[in-house]
Structures are given as structure tokens and as C-alpha cells.
Specification:
CATH architecture: 2-Layer Sandwich
Strand order of the largest sheet: 1-2
Number of strands: 4
CATH class: Alpha Beta
Structural class: alpha+beta
Number of helices: 5
Helix content: 40-55%
Strand content: 5-15%
Number of domains: 1
Low-confidence stretches: none
Order of helices and strands: EEHEHHHEH
Shape: globular
């Protein structure tokens, strides 16, 4: 889900991924891709990314702490998702700033509940197809 001052854009899809973390990473990458496609001058955008995936927050903090443009690949999850992580790191450098905000999953937060519903509907659609 992408929200700007004028509108809310819900989007979802499905992909063959082995883990929920892979899907969470893919969702961030696709949101960045959407913003890059439909907004001009993304280098002026101060972005807020809300996620209930602690792994993403951990990766971002690690990258910020290391002051690197590329994430060090050490654990199995990172190795398995290195392409998506590379895309996120590469895209994130284009924005003026990104504030990463951790939200509690399944806790009644409206935007998070909508994102969960979109993900479940996409998964059901995949099973039907």
C-alpha cells in the first residue's frame, strides 16, 4: 500500500517464495518500484515505510550502522534473498530520506490490517489459479 497526501494505492500480487520474509522483502521492493515509476523527483521524497517485519528493520539498521550502500551477506535468510535486498538497497539510495517504522503485526493498525488482507487475498487467488 502506498499513501501520499492525495491518495491511497492498494496493490498486491503473488510470487512463488519459500518464506514470508521473502514476501515482505518483495513487497518493499515493489512499493519502491511503484513510487519510482509514478512519482517524479523521488530524490526529494521523504519516505516513511511501515512494516511488521522485524527482519527488514534489522537489515536496514545494520546497513545504516555499517554506513554502506550494500548489505553484508552473512546469514542464510540474507543469502537466500540477496537479489531483493540488493534491489531495496539500490532503490533506497534514490530517496531524500527513508524513515523505517516497525509496527506490531495483527494489532488493529489500519494500514497493516489492510496490507494483511491484500496479502491473504493474493494468496487465495494463487491457490485458485
Amino acid at each position: 500500500m502506498v499513501i501520499d497526501s492525495n491518495k491511497v494505492v492498494d496493490f498486491s500480487g503473488y510470487a512463488v517464495c519459500k518464506t514470508s520474509i521473502s514476501m515482505e522483502l518483495l513487497a518493499v521492493a515493489k512499493a519502491f518500484e511503484y513510487i519510482n515509476s509514478f512519482f517524479s523527483h523521488i530524490d526529494t521524497i521523504n519516505l516513511k515505510v511501515y512494516t511488521d517485519c522485524d527482519y527488514i528493520i534489522k537489515l536496514v539498521r545494520k546497513k545504516e550502522k555499517a554506513k554502506r550502500t550494500v548489505m553484508p551477506i552473512k546469514d542464510k535468510t540474507t543469502k537466500r534473498n540477496k537479489r531483493i535486498i540488493f534491489d531495496i538497497c539500490n532503490s533506497s539510495e534514490k530517496f531524500a530520506s527513508i524513515e523505517w517504522i516497525s509496527v506490531k503485526a495483527h494489532s488493529g493498525i489500519k494500514g497493516n490490517d489492510i496490507a494483511d488482507k491484500l496479502a491473504k487475498n493474493a494468496a487465495k487467488k494463487m491457490i485458485k489459479d
